[in-house]
Amino acid sequence: MPLSHGRPYLAIPGPSVIPDRVLQAMHRPAPEIHGGAMVQLLESLLPDLRAVARTRHKVAMYISNGHGAWEAGLANVLARGDKILALATGRFGHGWAEVAQGLGADVEVMDFGKRAPVDLDRVAARLAEDRGHEIRAVTVVHVDTATSVKNDIAGLRAALDAAGHPALLMVDCIASLGCDRFEMDDWGVDVMVSACQKGLMVPPGLGFVFFNDRAETARARADMATQYWDWRMRADPQEFYQYFWGTAPTHHLYGLRAALDMLVQEEGMQAAWARHERLARTVWAAIDAWGADGPMEANIADPACRSHAVTAVQLGAPNGTALREWLSETAGVTLGIGLGMAAPGDPAWHGFFRIAHMGHVNAHMVLGALGSIEAGLDALDIPHGRGALGAAAAVVAGR
In the predicted model, what is the mean pLDDT of residues 327-351? Predict the structure, then answer.
């Protein structure tokens, strides 16, 4: 008998759960777009966006998803033929590299697999080999949504500095922004790209590129950006329409204002990071207990290298897909697919799933999802250890 009637829980790593306040803020007639309150609204967003990114530098906004932010970030700092070093720890590290290649960059990929973070020693050795400083930029995903690995961004900056290498450090924070601690200025990041549909709790449609003075200087020789993707007018507009090079995404801006009120003005970044950390450990405690007497395991073994926004899980084919389908049809809980963990058509793809704990989530939502997962394991006779829910509750209780 299906028990899924009622409010569904979308526990996928984006789009994340949208707060009612955000939905209500967006539910209004279209506004005037050439002045007045809309101008004031947009300008109020900028300091709070900088607060989330932990930067004093500029931000350009685009009507796009994360892929658009990838392209915008690259196009504004590279010339065709420029060499970049793309560090890949999952599908999205490779995806950003593919965008760079499509734009005309000379892309070298360092692949660290799907179960480990970037090896800083390998990167340091490669930078040391580049005595002519042919590498113009190093790209990396802070949290790869596919694998749930979290990379050491401050460590990468230290490696670049130790090598005396001038390459720009470009970081994808699409999954991590607002969830995992990120310090753009303190960690020496030159370009950071993100989007609104994960930690920022807004429906998909807004991309962001934050950039510092070094990146702004690189814009002078870049030749990939068309007028639409050029960040110069967007970051320093003379007229309101230049923020988006045309009509603004008005209702997304209303929603973003409500989301930033909740995240920055009310909760605060330190508290948001702490909440995500505790909820992530709640999920991990359950996975450890289930895996003690069964095939379940977190994709990333070292908790220090796991994201606080999403956890990729291995369960073995076909159990991963079977569990996701049971949860969706019977319990009203939707888990993320095992994106990029196996080739399309490979039966191994059915052995993975992802649990998102990002954005507008709290203890009862996470504990409810974990309880539903345990019910699914029981219903499908998938071997698993006991005591998972008690272990998860203990983390919530602070024990």
Answer: 92
